[in-house]
Design a protein that fits this description.
The chain has two domains: about 200 residues, Bordetella uptake gene, domain 1 (D-Maltodextrin-Binding Protein, domain 2), CATH 3.40.190; about 100 residues, Periplasmic binding protein-like II (D-Maltodextrin-Binding Protein, domain 2). It starts with a helix and ends in a 5-residue tail after the last helix. With about 325 residues, it is an alpha/beta fold. The chain contains eleven helices and ten strands. α2 runs antiparallel to α10 and α4 crosses α11. α2 links the parallel β1 and β2. This is Tripartite tricarboxylate transporter substrate binding protein BugD. Pfam families: TctC.
């Protein structure tokens, strides 16, 4: 028995040493890192992830970083893929505010947001825009509110699917106007935007990362931004805030964060967090994000523990709103 225990202990020590060696060698130059995006390609979260992948390559020694789109079920399919992945630092998740809404929004969620991930840090804050089809007769928020009141029961409000940023913002917009609209969910932001431009739906509330180019090209009408102050981007600087438009409590920011599977070695997680911090200060990354109306995180949310506290507060904020709306993503 004693001989067995000595052998077992020696094997355990060797295993731990092996794990430590693997962690210290992270990342291997011949093994790519994959960032899973739980939404369709071409959408706003996909754009953020691809920009981040490029910005993190250099501080991680030039390793290849791939993006894998795994959409569906309010973002939980992609998140579950990462939660169940090997905790070695080679499979990561870029997710938005859905990390805070999934616990309430998704029935029978197969993982726990609070405990099944290593929180690596926040990435950005993305304001939303209230936009409409180009033929909508209103030209400012006052006229839009009057148009909505005159067309109750006839208005289609598009979104990128249950649990998407556009869906959540749409819920708040209806609540603010005290008017029910017919929700039209799509399988992603791109087809929703196509139908808005074509006039098949009337309104949408979506991230600046997806709407800025359409607003600039005058393919849609823009009525307000959901940030506390006007944005400096050329295409958005003349668009008033919701507060300026008479909705003092209407403020929505769709943030993004970076995560790894629970159990990822501490030194690997630190290397990833260090690379994230370098990326968030990269001038090219900042310029790309600002061009989309997004604000790169510069506060304590860059740290893992503080981002986790932030997400916990967001879960507490959104849970009653979703429950009151009675919506779920199966």
């Amino acid at each position: 028995m004693t001989r067995f225990l000595k052998t077992f202990t020696a094997a355990a020590v060797l295993a731990l040493v092996g794990i430590g060696a693997q962690a210290s060698d992270f990342p291997a130059k011949d093994k790519p890192i994959t960032i899973v995006v739980p939404f369709a390609a071409g959408g706003p979260t996909d754009r953020v992830a691809r920009d981040l992948a490029e910005a993190m390559r250099k501080p991680l020694g030039g390793v290849s970083i791939l993006v894998d789109n795994a959409a569906g079920a309010g973002g939980s399919i992609g998140a579950n893929k990462v939660a169940k992945a090997a905790p070695d630092g080679y499979t990561l998740l870029v997710h938005h505010i859905g990390m805070a809404t999934m616990p309430t929004l998704v029935r029978n969620i197969p993982f726990k947001v609070e405990t099944d991930f290593e929180y690596l840090g926040g990435i950005n804050d993305v304001p939303m825009t209230i936009i409409a089809k180009p033929t909508l007769p209103a030209n400012n928020m006052k006229e839009l509110v009057a148009w909505v009141a005159a067309n109750k029961g006839k208005i289609n409000l598009g979104n990128a699917g249950v649990g998407s940023a556009s869906h959540l913002c749409g819920l708040l917009f209806q609540e603010a106007l005290k008017t029910d609209m017919t929700p039209v969910p799509y399988k992603g932001t791109a087809p929703a935007m196509t139908d808005l431009i074509g006039g098949q739906i009337d309104l949408m509330c979506d991230q600046t990362t997806n709407t800025t180019s359409q607003i600039e090209a005058k393919k849609v009408k823009a009525f307000a931004v959901t940030s506390p102050k006007r944005l400096s981007t050329a295409a958005l600087k003349d668009i008033p805030t919701m507060q300026e438009s008479g909705f003092k409590d209407f403020q929505v920011s769709i943030w993004h964060g970076l995560y790894a599977p629970k159990g990822t070695p501490a030194d690997v997680a630190k290397k990833l967090n260090d690379a994230l911090k370098v990326a968030l200060k990269d001038p090219d990354f900042i310029k790309k994000q600002e061009g989309l109306g997004a604000v790169v995180v510069t506060d304590k949310r860059m740290d893992s523990a503080d981002h986790k506290k932030f997400v916990a507060a967001e879960i507490a904020k959104w849970s009653p709103i979703i429950k009151a709306a009675g919506v779920y993503a199966d």
